[in-house]
Write a structure and sequence with these properties.
about 150 residues, alpha+beta, 3 helices, 4 strands
């Protein structure tokens, strides 16, 4: 019994050792804030690139549709922008709008994905993405690394 009381006495904590001080808590909060300040811009950059790649994929789907249209009609003329699943708001439609800047001609078309909403302000590096009947890819900026 005597031994148990001595062990309990050694294991008990004083009030000073019972918790964290305000200074210690503020240091932890400051470290978390610094890590968040570094991580958030990187996260936004990755989201922007991901949305752009998804729009590029959707433009490729539009190009596939246009080639099927050409095979059936032997002309691109009269084709309208297809309502593909990739253009829905759940996919890329919330970040890009898709259109033909000019009506497709007999032998040519250009499909464009124009950034909208937050993507418009975040993706100033690439801007509007374009794809034509030859597979040539371009942007509204002179940056060649976007595709």
């Amino acid at each position: 019994m005597q031994l148990r009381m001595e062990i309990d006495a050694e294991c008990s904590l004083s009030k000073e050792e019972a918790g964290f001080s305000l200074i210690e808590l503020m240091i932890v909060v400051a470290i978390i804030a610094i890590l968040a300040a570094i991580a958030y811009p990187s996260y936004i950059s990755h989201i922007t690139k991901t949305n752009r790649v998804a729009a590029e994929g959707c433009l490729s789907e539009v190009a596939s549709y246009m080639e099927r249209y050409y095979t059936t009609h032997l002309s691109y003329e009269g084709a309208t922008m297809p309502a593909l699943d990739c253009q829905s708001a759940q996919q890329t439609g919330a970040n890009y709008s898709y259109a033909f800047p000019a009506s497709p001609s007999t032998t040519a078309y250009i499909a464009q994905a124009t950034p909208t909403g937050a993507q418009l302000t975040r993706d100033t590096q690439c801007g509007t993405l374009s794809l034509d009947q030859t597979g040539a890819r371009s942007t509204s900026t002179s940056d060649t690394t976007c595709w």
